[in-house]
Amino acid sequence: MKSDLVRFEDWTDPVPPAAREVVSRLPEDDIGHPPLLFVPGTSSPSFAEHWLGHAAGRGFSSYALSPRPGGDLRAQVHDTVQVAASLPRQAVLIGHGLGALVVARALGRYPARAAVLTAPVLSGWAVARAFSLFSRPVLPAPAGDPPVLVAGSPDDRAVKRKALDRAAAGYGGAPLLFPGMGHDLMLEEGWEEPIDAILDWLEKQLPMPGH
Amino acid sequence: MHDTPDPGDRGDAVCVVGAGASGLAAIKSLREQGFAVDCYERETSVGGAWNWRHDRSPIYSGTHLISSRPLTEFPDFPMPDTWPDYPHHSKVLEYLERYAKHFRLDQDIWFGMEVSSAVPAGDGKWDVTIRSTGGGSSRVQRYAAIVVANGHNWSPAAFEAPGDFTGQVIHASAYKDPARLRGRKVLVVGGGNTGCDIAVEAAQQATRVWHSTRRGYWLAPKYVFGRPADQVNDRLLRWGLPLRLRQWLYRRTVKLTSGDLTRYGLAEPDHRPYESHPIVNSQLPYYLGHGTIEPVPDVERYDGASVILTDGTKIEPDLVITATGYRPRFDFLAPELLDTDEDGRPDLHLHAFARRHPTLAVIGLLQPDSGVFPLAHWQSVAVARWLRLRVTDPERAAAVQQKESTRPVQSWSRRRVIPTQRHWFEVDHVDYLRSVEGLLNEMGSVR
Ligand SMILES: Cc1cc2nc3c(=O)[nH]c(=O)nc-3n(C[C@H](O)[C@H](O)[C@H](O)COP(=O)(O)OP(=O)(O)OC[C@H]3O[C@@H](n4cnc5c(N)ncnc54)[C@H](O)[C@@H]3O)c2cc1C
Ligand SMILES: NC(=O)c1ccc[n+]([C@@H]2O[C@H](COP(=O)([O-])OP(=O)(O)OC[C@H]3O[C@@H](n4cnc5c(N)ncnc54)[C@H](OP(=O)(O)O)[C@@H]3O)[C@@H](O)[C@H]2O)c1
């Protein structure tokens, strides 16, 4: 019987530690916002280019984790939870592409303050290829019931509108859409719009001191 | 404090007693279910037993975990994976402090405040009297529920023997620093983890060490085949091996690792493996083999400067450390609220839910064959969900209660244990968690 409480795999065969690459951009003043942890997929462009600095400029301590080389899905989820738990405060997890799958899985293991899945690749060939997983990965119920946002573009050729709708429905919502953009929301022209919309959503979701 | 009509009435808020590992987990789960929480902690900081600065902490300077890291950490807040298999107690405290800070639990904790009484106020409510430990003021607040997480390892179980002793006798709770043992002749009484640890520290410091136990035990090493012993044990559980087979394997493994301890003069265990609380100590056999720990039977009486043992031997220690364990204490609750028997043992559903008071629960009142934190976490999740369900769907709550009352005690409580004071709340972590999961499933989604 599959159990969420009896975690034999974690208990008998813990994921070995690995050096983790985390880059961060911190705001000048701590205005009480939760820290953001960006989790890219293996083929996602870097968050560090634009989004990290932009979020820091809006007062969010921002961290981006590089996927462990050769790490399977379990190892990447492990790394995400390890880094999240190492932050001084309860973190918001933001994944992109395959990184959104890592975040969706990590949500079962860490009670995030909130989560954002951007252009989420949650099943299909890309998942099979990246993680040698041939059945649709099961998405756990998020621990602590955080607000979860799905964001993407209806014109993304890798993640179709239908997939966005399905992913969002899984968390009881509708996707936030940025028509005209492609898959790499954080790199393309107009990258400010999605990150600003995400941060606006966060500020609305989370009662923060001083707001 | 908050906006409620009567300053003494906290409305739907829940009171948590204690900010050790269990209390912290309780605050977090209750908050996740949307409850306002007031936690009262009589010490001035979090960590409970693991905070060695607290007067009542049972931790001595050399304490390391006996449950390995993966089986000890909270399931939703791992310890850093670079930490050792068995971290030092100061790391465990650091971990609990980080947990509290990460989830901002300290915002809901009132330090230096002791709960001195809690009485039912009708309608499931509780009148809780809180006293400042600095002396002076006390106040009464009304809560919708009370979650007790006061720990059970701080009130020493007394050891008494007839006669007078001219040497010094201390309980293990007062033992902190091995320097105290240097150059002395020490008798350690008690074969639990504390007694075995102190005997080993004494072997490294004292001029002579006797270790008195009233029965033989199954002494597990910290490592088996290069892996932490509890992880290897869980592999057997994972394969679903029946108890009898696991007992056989346990005997084999102990023979191959710790070895045959009767060779050093220890008694043969009078019970099967898994029938007493696990003792994990790799060093005790080493010092027994070096003759620096001399095993002796039970103490019969004191006689001036001597201690007379049950086999008639007379020894002359100048320091006796009684590591006879601790007893749960609920001074602020009338015994009938927890259905406590004359031996001080509460009778609670899943060792957590008061049978006749649906808004009273206890977290952490159990002894597993794993770390305590994961169990305290899931108990907290279940208690918080239960309290929420009572509010949102009383009918369903009643149905769940009805169903739970048919859950057989043997399914979550250890079936066979040696019948001494300390074993009544021994649980098998896998059976226990499966039962809690059953309850969570009845209540709806596991969160
Ligand atoms: C030497 C030793 C080693 C151990 N090693 C391990 C191990 O390796 N692994 C493991 O999992 N467990 C171990 N334990 C068990 C340990 O007790 C638990 O890990 C854990 O401390 C239990 O947490 P708790 O919150 O239930 O109780 P505690 O840590 O005792 O915390 C209870 C808190 O409640 C407060 N309190 C009590 N009464 C009141 C009141 N009336 N009003 C206000 N506040 C109150 C206390 O001040 C305290 O802070 C060990 C225990 C001992 C004694
Ligand atoms: N992480 C660690 O390193 C560590 C260290 C210490 C303790 N702990 C934990 O802390 C808890 C308490 O442990 P503990 O060792 O202090 O206490 P304990 O487990 O209750 O053990 C008490 C010991 O004293 C004996 N005893 C009790 N009363 C006695 C009497 N009147 N005369 C003679 N012997 C008597 C008991 O014998 P019986 O077997 O007959 O009952 C037992 O051997 C346990 O959960 C333990 O695992 C962990």
From TrEMBL, chain A:
Keywords, comma-separated and alphabetical: Hydrolase
Quote the Gene3D superfamilies the UniProt record gives. Answer: alpha/beta hydrolase (3.40.50.1820)
The record's GO molecular-function terms, alphabetically, read: hydrolase activity
Q: Name one Pfam family in it.
A: Ser_hydrolase
Q: Does the keyword Mitochondrion apply?
A: no
Hydrolase keyword on record: yes
Question: Could you identify this protein by its name?
Answer: Serine hydrolase
Q: Write down the species.
A: Actinoplanes lutulentus
UniProtKB/TrEMBL annotation, chain B:
Q: Which residues form a coiled coil?
A: none
Q: Known catalysed reaction(s)?
A: N,N-dimethylaniline + NADPH + O2 + H(+) = N,N-dimethylaniline N-oxide + NADP(+) + H2O; heptan-2-one + NADPH + O2 + H(+) = pentyl acetate + NADP(+) + H2O; sulcatone + NADPH + O2 + H(+) = 4-methylpent-3-en-1-yl acetate + NADP(+) + H2O; octan-3-one + NADPH + O2 + H(+) = pentyl propanoate + NADP(+) + H2O
Q: Where in the cell is it found?
A: Microsome membrane
State the InterPro entries in the record.
Answer: FAD/NAD-bd_sf (IPR036188), Flavin_mOase (IPR000960), Flavin_mOase-like (IPR020946), Flavin_mOase_5 (IPR002257), FMO-like (IPR050346)
Question: Which GO biological-process labels does this protein carry?
Answer: lipid metabolic process
Record carries keyword Kinase: no
Q: Name one GO molecular function term.
A: NADP binding
**What are its E.C. numbers?**
1.6.3.1
Q: Which Pfam families does this one have?
A: FMO-like
Key word Flavoprotein present: yes
Q: Which UniProt keywords apply?
A: Endoplasmic reticulum, FAD, Flavoprotein, Lipid metabolism, Membrane, Methylation, Microsome, NADP, Oxidoreductase, Phosphoprotein, Transmembrane, Transmembrane helix
Q: Which family does it belong to?
A: Belongs to the FMO family.
Function of this protein? Acts as a Baeyer-Villiger monooxygenase on a broad range of substrates. Catalyzes the insertion of an oxygen atom into a carbon-carbon bond adjacent to a carbonyl, which converts ketones to esters. Active on diverse carbonyl compounds, whereas soft nucleophiles are mostly non- or poorly reactive. In contrast with other forms of FMO it is non- or poorly active on 'classical' substrates such as drugs, pesticides, and dietary components containing soft nucleophilic heteroatoms. Able to oxidize drug molecules bearing a carbonyl group on an aliphatic chain, such as nabumetone and pentoxifylline.
Q: What is this protein called?
A: Flavin-containing monooxygenase 5
